[in-house]
Write a structure and sequence with these properties.
Elements (H helix, E strand, L loop, with lengths): L2 H19 L7 H7 L3 H4 L11 H9 L20 E16 L4 E16 L6 E10 L4 E10 L5 E7 L13 H4 L9 E9 L3 E8 L13 E9 L3 E11 L3 E14 L2 E14 L5 E15 L2 E11 L9 E10 L5 E11 L9 E11 L1
Antiparallel strand pairs: 1-2, 1-16, 2-3, 3-4, 4-5, 5-6, 6-7, 7-8, 8-9, 9-10, 10-11, 11-12, 12-13, 13-14, 14-15, 15-16
Length: 364
């Protein structure tokens, strides 16, 4: 094994060591890790992301900002006892420059969503809708029915996000972009969630090839398991996605830990694609994220990312490093200032770039 190959696996082992050797852990995922709570405490979707529960609204209203507004946070999107609304708007000013000499500066809507959750009284049923209204044409992201059993277990069916690793807000992160499990990739299927207080297990089957309809008689099968310890958590996901021309297998391990105002999390993904008309391909993806809450309302985030598109070839990996300052001056408003530096292979200078952005995030 040459030096380059060794470095790939050393990087993966560093992330794995962080996950296994850290002493303590518990959405954006770092908030779940910091507060030692499950994602479903703050979000209607038990997996996190999307519409917030009443508790999630209260937390976002009182614990995240530097100054708390006067209005009652839990009531902001509440129509009545059984119907609630929510929303997100992210607006960016950004500049991108790459080593090929290209540069762009723009204002743009990064994303805008509206959510609705309907929970008929004493039925255990929740109808949930997540609709993206910008940029571009309206796109349905999630539309499913969930039934909660007498305990904390549930089953849901419809269009939804498949459980996979950390539910990061940043869809452009390698662990979300390369694997395809992000906020642009919901799929039709069914999911069974088993919640045993400190152990979460998700079993799911989806189309795998399209979020609209399946184009063959094969499906995506997956399992995700997560263990919550007193002050850290560790999880893993396994997926098999079969199709007529190839089969893709994915496995990851992820987790996080918290020390006071410092929260550390990470994920390593391994992707194997078996192809009928070409050689098998193995990919390795990784992320480490460090958050430091300097004071209430102000968080600093540093990330390191790694992507090897084919582990059989040397010196073809990409790395990215980001620094982001997140400031919430008042309730339901967050400002984010960041820089991301990406380094790809010399043969593709457009993959090496610098990105600067300022984002305004409104939420309820």
């Amino acid at each position: 094994m040459n030096i380059q190959s060794i470095s790939k696996w050393v990087w993966a082992l560093v992330v794995l060591s962080v996950l296994l050797l850290t002493k303590t852990v518990d959405a954006e995922p770092y908030l779940a890790i910091k507060t030692k709570m499950k994602c479903g405490v703050c979000h209607v979707n038990p997996l996190g992301g999307g519409m917030r529960t009443s508790f999630g609204n209260i937390y976002g209203h009182t614990q995240l900002p530097a100054k708390v507004s006067d209005f009652t946070a839990a009531e902001i999107g509440k129509i009545n006892e059984f119907i609630g609304l929510g929303g997100n708007l992210r607006y960016n000013a950004e500049r991108n420059e790459d080593d090929a000499g290209n540069s762009t500066s723009t204002f743009r809507i990064d994303s805008a969503q509206l959510y609705i959750a309907v929970t008929p009284k004493d039925t255990g049923i929740t109808f949930y809708l997540d609709q993206q209204i910008a940029p571009g044409a309206a796109v349905n992201r999630e539309a499913y029915v969930q039934y909660n059993f007498s305990g904390q277990h549930y089953i849901k069916a419809g269009k939804m996000y498949s459980p996979f690793g950390l539910r990061l807000e940043d869809d452009s992160a390698f662990v979300r972009q390369v694997t395809g499990f992000n906020f642009d990739s919901s799929d039709n299927g069914v999911e069974l969630g088993l919640d045993y207080d400190d152990i979460l297990i998700n079993l799911f089957v989806t189309n795998g090839t399209s979020s609209v309809a399946n184009n063959d008689d094969k499906f995506l099968y997956g399992i995700k398991a997560e263990k919550l310890f007193s002050n850290f958590r560790l999880g893993a996901t396994g997926i098999v996605n079969t199709a007529d021309l190839n089969e893709q297998q994915m496995f990851n391990i992820y987790g996080g830990v918290n020390w006071g105002e410092i929260t550390l999390l990470g994920e390593v993904d391994w992707i194997k694609t078996e192809q009928l008309d070409a050689d098998d391909e193995n990919q390795l993806v990784g992320l480490i994220e460090l958050n430091y809450q300097w004071q209430q309302g102000l968080n600093f985030k540093v990330t390191a990312e790694y992507f090897d598109p084919n582990t059989d070839f040397d010196e073809n990996h990409e790395t990215r490093y980001s620094f982001i300052a997140e400031y919430a001056p008042i309730s339901n408003l967050q400002l984010r200032l960041g820089i991301r530096s990406a380094e790809g292979i010399p043969q593709q200078p457009e993959r090496s770039s610098e990105r600067f952005f300022l984002q305004t995030h409104l939420y309820f």
